[in-house]
Specification:
By secondary structure, this protein is mostly beta strands. It is built from two helices and ten strands. A five-stranded mixed β-sheet has the order 8-1-2-10-9.
Length: 151
């Protein structure tokens, strides 16, 4: 009887990709509740500078974070029709403001690589690594780290 062994297990997820400034980033699509346009929001006094405000989304209060500011990559241009990626966190719903949405990419996480040295600075702590496709290098965003309040 021939014994079969599994040489490798696949760990394939779908990455929702988006641009933060000029950087292509991605996160597990299962972490995303929805993607929408930026609507009218209310400023929050004494909030960190990366918190743009809050908005009411069908009865849910959503905190809007400028992901570019949070990652130390400048500021998202609000005149360029940015998008909110609404994710669920332990503290409620959070909107991550990004420059634009890109494609959904099927990614084998066994092929994920460590973040390069130039990602090891302030924004490097928010990434779990990178994923290479034929055309792009996608920074894998650690959403839980981005949403943690210890800054």
């Amino acid at each position: 009887m021939k014994e079969t062994t599994r040489t490798s297990t696949t760990n394939i997820i779908e990455l929702a990709t988006f641009y933060v400034g000029d950087a292509l980033c991605g996160m597990d699509i299962l972490k995303i509740q929805e993607i929408n346009k930026l609507t009218q929001m209310t400023k929050v006094p004494q909030a960190p500078e990366y918190v743009l405000g809050i908005l009411n989304l069908r009865g849910q209060i959503v905190t809007i974070i400028d992901l570019s500011k949070k990652l130390g990559l400048g500021e998202t241009d609000l005149t360029q029709d940015p998008r909110n990626i609404i994710v669920n966190s332990t503290g409620g719903h959070v909107g991550l403001l990004v420059r634009r949405i890109s494609d959904v990419v099927e990614a084998d996480m066994n092929r994920r690589e460590r973040a390069p040295a130039n990602m090891s600075g302030i924004q490097g702590e928010f990434f779990t690594g990178v994923y290479k496709t034929d055309a792009h290098l996608i920074g894998l965003l650690d959403v839980d780290k981005v949403l943690s309040i210890d800054d």
